[in-house]
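Section 5: illustrative case.
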């Protein structure tokens, strides 16, 4: 049975995915999945390996096209044919493999593909000073992260700091409204995990809709407002974190329990 996500409060979702099906040849990765995400909320997506979590958010971020189904942003239907379409619509993602360039500085990473320039005698040159200043400010003001030096290559940073650079690149776009994170703590130690969870909460408090895929139910219970459970390509329930527990979510993940409707 597929859960119907009922409105549990008055705020309209920013993201409404409806009837999303994705087939890769004969493989049904997603089967008629609905997903809502709201501003100022952390939505966790959980499920076993191969349950369709990454595929679902790759469809939201324009990496894959759905075989069937629709995506609405703020009530308007959106067709995202590329990741840049999604970024332009205010939706961006930070993946576990981070996709940041090790041989560049944090500021160069932040502005990769959208470099700031200034004009000297009519010739455009990179405005490194301004990029460095803005990158420092984004890291500090939005993420509460201060690197010892901004003049280092990203490869010399810790896993958590690299993650912060990747997140900073997403959030420094003024129009960002939906931030998706696939396994943000998977490669981090306990301290950096705690810092990343704190950072996710602060982005939520800044009004973003944050969607986090995680295999760690401890992390999920610490940061999320709602939990969307995927099993074998289908959504088997959406539960409010405050109204459920580890055991119930686990039983939904493994298929001994299905929740009809949000509770
Ligand atoms: N590009 C692809 N081509 C073919 N099959 C794919 C592709 N991407 C995903 N799949 C299949 O779709 C299903 C869902 O995969 P997906 O990566 O979304 O799972 P997941 O829930 O993110 O799993 P994990 O927890 O292991 O990351 C799997 O059966 C997978 O093999
Ligand atoms: Mg995945």
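Designed sequence:
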């Amino acid at each position: 049975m597929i859960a119907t996500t009922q409105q549990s409060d008055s705020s309209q979702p920013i993201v409404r995915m409806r009837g999303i099906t994705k087939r890769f040849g004969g493989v049904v990765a997603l089967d008629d999945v609905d997903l809502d995400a709201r501003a100022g909320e952390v939505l966790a997506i959980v499920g076993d390996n191969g349950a369709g979590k990454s595929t679902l958010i790759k469809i939201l971020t324009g990496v894959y096209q759905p075989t069937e189904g629709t995506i609405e942003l703020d009530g308007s239907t959106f067709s995202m044919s590329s990741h840049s379409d999604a970024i332009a619509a205010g939706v961006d993602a930070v993946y576990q493999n981070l996709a940041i360039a090790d041989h560049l500085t944090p500021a160069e990473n932040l502005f990769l593909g959208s470099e700031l320039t200034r004009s000297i005698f009519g010739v455009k040159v990179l405005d490194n000073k301004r990029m460095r200043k803005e990158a420092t400010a984004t890291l500090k003001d939005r993420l509460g992260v201060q690197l010892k030096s901004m003049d280092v290559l990203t490869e010399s940073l810790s896993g958590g700091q690299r993650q912060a650079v990747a997140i900073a690149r997403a959030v420094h776009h003024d129009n960002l409204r939906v931030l998706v994170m696939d396994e943000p703590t998977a490669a981090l130690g306990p301290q950096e995990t705690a810092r990343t969870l704190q950072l996710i909460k602060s982005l939520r408090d800044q009004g973003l809709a944050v969607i986090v895929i995680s295999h760690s139910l401890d992390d999920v219970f610490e940061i999320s407002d709602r939990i969307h459970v995927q099993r074998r390509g289908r959504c088997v329930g959406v539960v409010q974190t405050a109204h459920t527990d580890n055991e119930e979510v686990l039983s939904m993940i493994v298929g001994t329990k299905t929740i009809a409707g949000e509770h």
